[in-house]
Hints:
This protein is about 75% helix and about 0% strand. The mean pLDDT is about 85. It starts with a helix and ends with a helix. The protein is mainly alpha-helical. It has helices spanning about 5-20, 25-30, 35-55, 65-90, 95-100, 105-115, 120-140, 145-170, 180-195, 205-230, 235-245, 245-260, 265-285, 285-295.
Amino acid sequence: xxxxxxxxxxxxxxxxxxxxxxxxxxxxxxxxxxxxxxxxxxxxxxxxxxxxxxxxxxxxxxxxxxxxxxxxxxxxxxxxxxxxxxxxxxxxxxxxxxxxxxxxxxxxxxxxxxxxxxxxxxxxxxxxxxxxxxxxxxxxxxxxxxxxxxxxxxxxxxxxxxxxxxxxxxxxxxxxxxxxxxxxxxxxxxxxxxxxxxxxxxxxxxxxxxxxxxxxxxxxxxxxxxxxxxxxxxxxxxxxxxxxxxxxxxxxxxxxxxxxxxxxxxxxxxxxxxxxxxxxxxxxxxxxxxxxxxxxxxx
Length: 299
């Protein structure tokens, strides 16, 4: 493998993670509810993902009847995950919402042993305690009537839903590629959430539609393609560690583009959570490449 291909892969990876982090900004840029953003984004992404599957000469149809029921369950989890993900940042801030959501890597290592019938390691329990400490640092007051606290709660719920989706995917749906899986999950998200759409789509202005299209194409499909391409020339450990920069990139973009303010508690709590995620990534790097095929395209 040449130094040029490695350098190119790193550039693709960082751009992909930067774009995934930038997804969060649309919770503030698009003046619609979290549910409406999710429905319209999924509608755009559905067509783009279908095109990606066809270009890659893969089948859109699933292999077994029962796989459609599994796809339905995964689609429900994804729908709820996306709505709570965007709502978390609308209530709190992009930085706090993303940090709260990024508790999912540690949730995964704590929950996965139940399904894999392996023993929970003490070091993973310590990681869980560290993440809990980081989350507590983010909370301004223990009262759900406070928007920031409620936003953090929704971010953690989003992380739990994401964790459940990932584990179920690995157990029951991993034979399908990321675009194939997300094709069905975006379709199901639209079908399930569309009846609850709060905005008349005919009243949405052209500039808002443009933001939705940019979100669906350039901040969903494009980073997915870049990320998949980067895995050809980079190790699983490198991909996993760079992926942990997503909240950092998202927070940085929010500070620059949205003029968000970040207090010292958020910085300390965020550092605890992100360093723990990096530690767990290093601990589990042998398993990463298989998981990364379908984890990141959700954002």
